[in-house]
Amino acid sequence: MTILALLIIITILNMNIKIKRNGLKLSNLKEKKEAIIKEIKCNDELKQRFYSFGIIKGANIFVKEVSLRNNTMVIDIENTEIAIRVEEAEQIEVDKI
Amino acid sequence: MDTIKIVLAGQANVGKSSLINAMTKSRLKVGNFSGVTVEKTEVRFEHHSHMIEIVDLPGTYSINGFSSEEKIARDFLQNEQYDVILNVLDSTHISRNLLLTLELLNMNKKMVIALNMIDEAKKEGLDINAKQIEAITGIKSVAVSSKTKEGIGELLNTIHDVADNEVRAFSNISYSDIIEEQIFKVKKFLDEDDYSYLDLSSREMAIKLLNDDDKFYKEIHDKPVFMELQPLLLKCHDNIHNYHNTKSHADIQAIEHYAIAKGITAETTHKKTTNNKTLTKKIDDILINKFIGIPIFLFLMWGLFQLTFEFGSIPMDYIDMGFGLLSEAVKSSIAHEGLSSLLSDGIIAGVGAVVLFLPNIIILYIGIALLETTGYMSRVAFLLDGFFHKFGLHGKSFMPLVTGFGCSVPAYMATRTLKNEKDRLITLFIIGFMSCGAKLPIYVLFAGAFFDSDNAGNVLFAIYIAGALLGLVMAKILRMLVFKGEDEPFVMEMPKYRLPTIKLIYIIVSQKALSYLKKAGTFILAASILIWFASTYPKSNSDNPSIQLEQSYLGQLGKASVPFFAPLGFDWKLTVALETGLAAKEVVVATLGILYNIGEDVSEDDNRLLDKLKKEVPFATAMAFVVFSMIYLPCFAASMVFAKETGGYKYLLYLFVFTTGVAWIMSFITYRLLL
Ligand SMILES: Nc1nc2c(ncn2[C@@H]2O[C@H](COP(=O)(O)OP(=O)(O)OP(=O)(O)O)[C@@H](O)[C@H]2O)c(=O)[nH]1
Ligand SMILES: [Mg+2]
């Protein structure tokens, strides 16, 4: 019984840590901050579009401007400015530099 | 004479259309944003006694792209017959552009690479080694600039050579070790079996198999060799999946291609200077700033309409005077009453009323051309996206909507960049609310007649803004009631700012101005004759010109439909003008010009249409008329394109009911409020 409880607690803790580790999304990134793309989690269609813009795991990304209501942002990637909605930015996970 | 067929492929906004313009004498549409070309276009020309046929395709970010204009490009590349693919790259973004090149290479066609915008690359301190790119990819590469025409001749010769060559050059690209190992295994197997297919090398076949190429699989699937090949392929796939830790073929290809593209770029380009803040970035610090971005945009638009009215009215007075003198001269020199009336009251009044507004149209078109060619367009799409989104529209809808301020026909076609069918339909339905250039004369006429000249520009601005806002509200209503559904993702490239050459602006604007004049000289001319005839006959016994006019065919028609418009305060003349305007919006002013010319005492000292309107039409009616013409059905040509783009006449009927309904209600409200 105790072992089971312990196991459950450990799993929950583990999950928690995982969530935290996966936490930072591009959409949470503040203006003028730089980051590295860690993972892209979205459907293939959007992913394809991301790839063609060079939005891919390992790429460097810089948040140039976020609109007043946090709807849309402009990111700078490989010297190209790309406008992207927050809904789409939420599907990109990043690591701060 | 042999014909060489070349097809252009490249990402959006890399200068494909510009390159064709530079190579030939054609004048394809060019603009500094993604999605200028939405249809395949063919140009033919002669080079070294060969006929060359060159096909411009819409920009494609990837062969697997999803928007409808990307599909056009893919279908063409995969299914049509052609000799050479000319892959156009933007030299300042080689690495991203190479991703498409790598996909194109897998199609195993003859190919030439054009490194366009080399002038810009030089300015940015980029040193690009075309020969090196050629060595790594195995594909002939030429650095060119469609702006300075550098390298154009060499490019043409290269294409020519490649097309003439018996053999197709094979790609030299090498993948990561793990992939290369698998390619090697499959290739060896195919070699031992002596398997052959079309003109593919065994390496190319191996890559096709590892890429899960449908067509090739079908081909080889029924062959005996497949029995032994299958387990090998499975194993190879497994190896790759294990190594990359994913089964997604798209992911693996992306990672591989990305690494290759980076590698090629690193080996072939050198950046000499390191100015880390480009001009574009500096400008964007201001223009897309969250606080001042939108106010600046509104100010610029306001300025444009001020100019349209202020500057436009200067030559306008002279044109008006010219037509007035011409009309007098005709009247006094031609004795035959009917002929003289046809010429002066019909043709000169009708065509003159339309030509009069050419200066305004030109200024408006210059404004739109600047928006399209500087790169500002995409910025505004970004600025307005949040706002648009609230109304159920996509930020990218902005481009077709802006095009709609010029003419609805290309605007309807431009909606092809929207890949979500519902977004596209909503945009198609509201493009009409963006008043097209042909409606400008109506507005300028009424603004000039009913407001003093200090305010007329503001009124013009207000009319356009009101139309646009109304369009947004309609979009919201359509979205809520008819086209419910998912949002389309918004990921859009913002091009570099570019100063358009005077020549480019001149070409864009003069083309449109000429076609406006041509329309005035043909279509409007014919319409004017018809209108004159229908408003002069049958002759009645009365000597009073206005009674005569009322009893004419046109008068009868107007009287018959006037009950529908009576609640809006329109008399039969205005009614007729709206009805003839269904053919083309320019006809509205032509009709007014004729009707208010014929029904007048000749002794009138002030002969300008503007003054006559002011005298005969009450203010509230005039404003209701402006509102009605702002909203109701676009011209005949545009309506046909609308039906084609939406995919059915059923939609055209909806549009007719929708726009007429909204127009009636809005102008009723206007009339009642101002009465
Ligand atoms: N400096 C410079 N600008 C260029 C060159 N070629 C094209 N441009 C500019 O780049 C922009 C895009 O040109 P387009 O020819 O419309 O590009 P496209 O590839 O046809 O674009 P889509 O049809 O949207 O895919 C325009 O503003 C051109 O003036 C070049 O060689 N040098
Ligand atoms: Mg083009």
Describe the fold and architecture.
Chain A has 97 residues and is an alpha+beta fold. Chain A has one domain (24-96): SH3 type barrels, CATH 2.30.30.90. Helix content of chain A is 34%, strand content 32%. Chain A has three helices and five strands. A five-stranded antiparallel β-sheet of chain A has the order 4-3-2-1-5. The radius of gyration of chain A is 17 Å and the shape is elongated. In chain A, 31% of the residues are buried. The mean pLDDT of chain A is 83. Chain B is α/β, with parallel strands linked by helices. Among the domains of chain B are: 2-164, 3-Layer(aba) Sandwich (Rossmann fold); 177-273, Helix Hairpins; 385-483 and 609-675, no CATH class. In chain B, strands 2-3-1-4-5-7 form a six-stranded mixed β-sheet, with helices on both faces. A two-stranded antiparallel sheet of chain B has the order 6-8. In chain B, a hairpin with a 2-residue loop joins β2 and β3 (50-56). In chain B, α14 (337-355) packs antiparallel against α22 (502-536). The longest helix of chain B has 41 residues, at 293-333. The model of chain B has no long low-confidence stretch (mean pLDDT 89). The chains are: A alpha+beta (97), B alpha/beta (675). β4 (80-85) of chain A pairs antiparallel with β9 of chain B, so a sheet runs across the interface. The complex binds guanosine-5'-triphosphate and magnesium ion. Guanosine-5'-triphosphate is lined by residues 10, 12-18, 30-32, 34-37, 58-59, 116-117, 119-120, 145-147, 373, 498 of chain B.
